[in-house]
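Hmm, what's this shape?
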Amino acid sequence: MTITEADRAERVAVIQTYWDALMAADMATFRSLLAPDAVIHYPGRHYLSGDYTTNDEIVGLYTKLTGFILDGVFVGKVLDIMLGDVHTAVVIEYDLRMPSKTQHGRAIGLFILENGKIKEYWLHEWDQHMINWVFRSSRWFGWLMPLFRRKDAR
């Protein structure tokens, strides 16, 4: 099977809309991108790890994640979008601006998109150990995070 240029354009547009919605914490737009039977696989050994199998669960996860964006903790950008016959892969790089230091990271998101919707998504961190530490730290020290917000993130 070979995807058409129209399919490619649609898949890139979905990913761009997905990323823009996350960076703006626009959960209404984000929810509109989910297929009714969407599944999100979020890796790690921390309080957010697991499989999310309903749209309400998925939006709940991303509402928590966008809190890091709104607080100025997560700053990222898309480096590449790669399209195969079935999968769409997105490489991102990011900074996690923690109170004590900034962590640099990269990840690959692997999507199955159907009919302009996210059907399934797997996140693959390049340094899962670091992410586990960040999420555990944010859980322990989360009450401090508003004190460390970047001024331009308020």
User: Anything to note?
Assistant: The first strand starts at residue 34 and ends at 42.
